[in-house]
Amino acid sequence: MRVLLIGSGGREHALAWKLAQSPLLDELHAAPGNPGIAQLGECHPVRAEDGEGLLDLARSLEADLVVVGPEGPLVAGVADELRHAGVSVFGPSQAAAQIEGSKSFAKDVMSAVGVSTPQTMSIARPPCVLKLDGLAGGKGVFVCPDQESLDQALQVVGGLGQALLIEELLVGQEVSLFAIADGRDAVALAPARDYKRIGDGDTGPNTGGMGAYSPVPEVSAAEIDELLDAVHRPVLTELASRGAPFVGLLYAGLMLTDDGPKVLEFNCRFGDPETQAILPRLQGDLLASLAAAAAGHLDSIDVEAAEEAAVTVVLAAHGYPEGRDSGSAIEGVREAEAEAIVFHAGTAMRGSQLVTNGGRILDVTALGPSIDEARERAYAACNLISFEGMRFRADIAAKAASVAT
Ligand code: AMP
Ligand code: GLY
User: Which string of DSSP letters, residue by residue, matches 223-248?
Assistant: First the structure.
């Protein structure tokens, strides 16, 4: 098969890395891709938001399957344009992508089918959570346990003039559960836990994600099935009944509370950086699974995960999440690759030198017989890499490591 992968981050590098292992793959193309993906396939200088450019590219390549990585193009309707032109796509239509693009739409869908989610509040009073009602790259959520944090958040969101959702603040452990969906049914991938805050001990502002691990020992195989039945399947049925069947990756961000699991958010694509921890454990053929979902029949896909654990640590630029860095030389990737998998997230080539080009720069994933060992290997590899201002959390999977897998 000829596959065109859209996007340029660490998630897309992980997708490319796994797709490249498929015996079904003849050619891998990416738009625009990144230097890591360029080692696995051919990168084309077409932006992920350029619907017309992507359509031209998919046609000229005669792509058998287009896999859309980021939410932006999906919410903008890129999958619809490709499908109308007869191209097979793994990624939801604009209408179905509203499950991520609009938090109020997601709430409406969930309430229609009785999926458990935090209560909305009409007035912002602490403790509460403020959420911008649109795409914000994981940075549109303000958790406000007290009046001081609420005042600060209101100052930030007040100036933006964007619709706002106020929610009760929930307490519990989070888990990300991804399901490959074919418009009617879904198959779950292994669960993962993501670290959203910039600082150790979950302090500081929310980011796109600073690290992840998989599996999540507290969530058993039986519970994964229960979650699929309670969360993903009802939502897929409701979307289909609204004329917006969801074909792609339905990501549920869940909080495990004392009152049971509740959905904090849905995303309409693979999570970043969870994907970088989930795919290295996947034993089945990712390309076969995505192609089957895109064709509307999941029937016999194999998404079995290896027993091994995976831990991913994000190496970010000094100013992240507000800022980014470009042009700083990155050293030590080859040495780190002897110990771990190094996914490129925000990198570029300057001549033959790998340089920074973004907020999150590299994602380092290591596998091991336990979370503890995977964690040790991941950090050992991180310590071999350097670039100016490099920052990373030191506590990814630290608590999980004490729980046996
Ligand atoms: P979201 O984009 O809605 O998943 O929110 C990003 C992060 O904010 C989540 O992963 C949680 O860590 C936190 N968060 C969101 N909603 C709530 C809530 N109702 N209670 C507590 N934390 C929340
Ligand atoms: N890791 C959070 C996200 O992908 O939205």
Answer: HHHHHIIIIIHHHHHHHHHTT---EE
